[in-house]
Amino acid sequence: MQIVSISAALIPFFEHDDANRALMGSNMQRQAVPLLRPELPRVGTGIESRVAKDSGQVILAGADGVITSVDGKIL
Q1: How many CB atoms are located within 10 Å of the residue 11 CB?
Q2: What residue spans define the domains of the chain?
Q3: Which residues, including other chains, have CB under 8 Å from residue 10's CB and lie 6 or more apart?
Q4: Are 48 and 14 in contact (CB under 8 A)?
């Protein structure tokens, strides 16, 4: 089994893609911008949640609860 980069691991069906197409997909992910109205992806790799947690950009709750308000500084 060959280890690949995070951006390559996020490409669905990576192992079945041409090498040039996979390289282009990895480079395009680096240039991505956030969407105004994001939708759930129709196809995924299963590693997306792990990447989000490891990025350090996601706030995780220590226990179940309900968010009552959101501010620029406090959640």
Answers
A1: 19
A2: 1-75
A3: 29, 45, 47, 48, 51
A4: no
CA atoms within 13 A on the CB side of 37: 0
Could you give the CA distance from residue 42 to residue 38 in angstroms, rounded to a whole number?
12
Structural contact between residues 11 and 25, judged by C-beta atoms closer than 8 angstroms = yes
What is the tens place of the pLDDT at every residue in 22-57? 888 888 888 888 889 989 888 888 888 888 888 888
Are 36 and 5 a contacting pair, CB within 8 Å? no
Determine the 3-state secondary structure of 6 from DSSP: helix
Please report, as a single letter, which amino acid is at residue 51: V
